[in-house]
Amino acid sequence: MSDDFELDTDDLARRMDGAIANLRVELASLRTGRASGSMLEPIMVDAYGSPTPINQVGTVNVPEPRMVTINVWDKALVGKVEKAIRDSGLGINPQLNGTIIMLPIPELNEERRRELTKVAGNYAEQARVSIRNLRRDGMDQIKKAKSDGLSEDDQKFWETTVQEITDAHTKLVDETLETKQAEIMQV
User: Under 8 Å CB-to-CB from 11, ≥6 apart: which residues?
Assistant: First the structure.
């Protein structure tokens, strides 16, 4: 019947890679005491009636290790960009200089570092959940093929393959989290 069943493991792995890529983007937005333009990526500004990323309303620069500047192109949006940064929860107090918004990055205290490691842990758990959901999708495809006549040996082979892909991606999530947590806790 269904001896020609072949699970698209490349697609499964690609989708799991997407979960890890998303995790890396979320972790990059966490500040670690060093200035980084990527920490502003999740912040949206209400520009011209629609939410717009900061990098589309101005130029983001990192002139010093502890300073980020945003040169807002439209003077009318300076106040909205400043408000979006204040409301973002980054814990940064923007300073205005004409159309340039300066963001001095303060030193992180121990309590804030611990909070950020918990946030990073939550991001990693969301990535693990996504990977487990993709694993379940793969296992469901195998079960459907089994009901369509897939042999038990082939079923075991495909289940093992899906589990190996899942384990590899889960391990990658854990390693990424450990690296980020070490970076956050570094004084």
Answer: none
Q: Which CATH class is domain 36-104?
A: alpha beta
Tokens of 162: 């899906």
Question: What is the predicted pLDDT for the residue at 131?
Answer: 95
Please give the average per-residue pLDDT across 44-49, as a whole number. 87
Task: Spell out the CATH class of 9-27+109-185.
Answer: mainly alpha
**Extents of the domains making up the chain:** 9-27+109-185, 36-104
Give the length of the chain. 187
Judge contact between 124 and 23, C-beta under 8 A.
Answer: yes
Average per-residue pLDDT for the chain: 87
pLDDT at residue 176, rounded to an integer: 93
The pLDDT score that the predictor gives to residue 66 is 82
> Comparing 9-27+109-185 with 36-104, is the CATH topology the same?
no
**Helix 110-147 to helix 152-185 angle, to the nearest 10 degrees?**
170
